[in-house]
Amino acid sequence: MFAKYLAVFTSMLLSLAPSLVIAEQGNSSKLVVQHAKIRQFLPAATSTAAYFSLMNHSPQTRILQKATISGLGRVEIHEHVHSDTMMRMQKVQELTISPYQTISFQPGGYHLMAFEPTGKLRKGEKLTLTLYFANGERLESPIKVVSLQEEMGKQENNHSEHKHH
After folding, report:
1. pLDDT tens digits for the chain (165 residues)?
2. Does residue 142 form part of some domain?
3. Chain Cα centroid distance, residue 163
4. pTM score of the predicted model
5. What spatial distance separates the first Cα and last Cα of the chain, rounded to whole Å?
6. Residue 92 is assigned to a structural domain of this protein
7. Which residues form the domain of 113?
8. Is residue 1 part of a domain?
9. Could you tell me the CA-to-CA distances from 16 to 77, 125, 132 in Å, in that order?
10. Number of helices and strands in the chain (H, E)
11. Is the dihedral of CA 33, 39, 40, 43 positive or negative?
């Protein structure tokens, strides 16, 4: 009986924790993921995008080599680049995070492309994002499923507060 209450209390406590995860290796490495979200797949789409902020709160450079998301068969690190007045997306083999640097994975910049879902992604669902680094570190973080409509609404609200001179 006590185990049942303990399990319920633990799950409630974990659900209240913010989407902030810190990985530590020894005392020197601190990596932080914040605001991790993945968009639901649109009908007939074969891929979707994921965004978050990655902070390196350590004096050592970190090299991100790979990412996985639970429930998805393949995840790639991508970036948007401007070339000959055109914007295009390209796969990134590894990404260097300098000491005390924050990299924002966001539309129009670095982002994750996710493919091959094993099931339907449901709005509000929490998956697990795992980042793999060249030195062997792994960083796990919850990543929340959001709808594209929700994301577009937030962007419109942010622009509506902008005042023109």
Report:
1. 544 444 444 444 344 444 444 444 443 459 999 999 999 999 889 999 999 999 999 999 999 999 999 999 999 999 988 878 888 889 999 999 999 999 999 999 999 999 999 999 999 999 999 999 999 999 999 999 999 877 766 655 554 444 444
2. yes
3. 31
4. 0.76
5. 65
6. yes
7. 31-148
8. no
9. 29, 14, 26
10. 2, 11
11. negative
Cα 163 to Cα 88: distance, rounded to the nearest angstrom: 30
Could you tell me the two tokens for 3? 């185990």
Residue among 52, 61, 54, 53 nearest 29 (CA) = 61
Residue 42: CATH number of its domain: 2.60.40.1890
DSSP letter assigned to residue 4: H
What are the beta bridge partners of residue 22? 32
Place of tokens 């530590």: 24
Beta strands in 57-117 (DSSP E): 62-69, 72-83, 86-91, 95-97, 102-105, 111-117
Q: What are the tokens at 158? A: 């942010």
Number of domains forming the structure of the chain: 1
Decide: 40 and 146 in contact? Cβ < 8 Å: yes
